[in-house]
Amino acid sequence: MDTVLRTLTIYLFLLVLFRLIGKRTLSEVSTFDFILLLIVSEATQNALLGEDYSLVTGMTVILTLVLLDLGLSVIKSGSKKIEKIVEGSPLVLVENGKALQGSLKMSQVTEDDILQSARLAHGIERMDQIRFAVLESSGGISVVPASSPETQPIDRQVEQALRRLLDEKAMRPQPARPSQA
């Protein structure tokens, strides 16, 4: 029972810790972050197993972690509030080409991070070419390009072409029709 309680405590501690350090850290792992993660995993192993390195203890820890994860998934699927607490919610970082400094500061995301995501996803080079940039719950940045002729929906382009055609037709003089007698 001691192993299960230790596992539950460590799981909840790590869940809160990773929720507090932010989504971006989990998405973009630097060399320093990776080394830190290795050290944390070793410390976690020691805390989970204690002095008992038996096969049964290891299997108990693994089973407890899997059941905790499954249980949390069930709870999240039944409650949007719990899901928002555990997973967080998307955060708008850029709106109509303007970086929202409060959101950037809160999420520890830089304008360079946003532009990198924009370049990779859409070939965008400048902030003013971004309609929205959103830090997703997963830690990735989604970019919606600003409207341009290439990104407008095709039906809008067809509608504009039809209007031009109708306008040109209305401007042309109409030939006189012979009258019917």
Automatic annotation (TrEMBL):
Keywords: Cell membrane, Membrane, Transmembrane, Transmembrane helix
Domain named YetF C-terminal: residues: 79-149
Protein's membrane topology: Multi-pass membrane protein
Ranges that cross the membrane: 6-22, 55-75
Annotated compartments: Cell membrane
A Pfam family: DUF421
Main location class: membrane
Domain of life the protein comes from: Bacteria
Family, similarity comment: Belongs to the UPF0702 family.
Protein name per its UniProtKB record: DUF421 domain-containing protein
The organism's taxonomic lineage, starting at the top: Bacteria, Pseudomonadati, Pseudomonadota, Betaproteobacteria, Burkholderiales
